[in-house]
Amino acid sequence: MKTHRVQSGMAVVETMVAILVFSFGILGIVGLLAASMKHSAEAKYRTVASNLAGQLAGEMWVADKSALATAFESPDGDQYAAWRDKVRAALPGAADNAPTVAIDDSVATITVRWQAPGEAAHSHVLVARIGEGI
Q1: What torsion do the CA atoms of 8, 9, 15, 16 make, to the nearest 10 degrees?
Q2: What's the predicted TM-score (pTM) here?
Q3: Which residues cross the membrane (predicted)?
Q4: Tens digits of per-residue pLDDT, 80-106?
Q5: How far apart are the C-alpha atoms of 124 and 107, rounded to whole Å?
């Protein structure tokens, strides 16, 4: 009597399924890595923007309070222009989105904007008390 082998070729099918499952796992890991790199870059830009805004606020705290508006708020001010150039060099898309400084009485509002390629625009706003009665 002849016996038929029903399971011939099952090892190949099992191997193919295992490879398929493994491939989906690898694709998932690659996707997580890409998302992680994107979020890491976003965090870096937020940190740089925060540090640059804090640096300008610190310069305002030690500057002559009577000349704050001309030195920091005006686009032609020496200290603002130097700081703006640092922002443009450090953040992507900052050349198209100029940072702004507004001084109202003893409160300065510093806004830093940037836009990484292929992403939406971002901004960081720092409001700091820089003196009494400017």
Answers
A1: -150
A2: 0.75
A3: 15-36
A4: 888 999 999 999 988 888 898 988 888
A5: 16
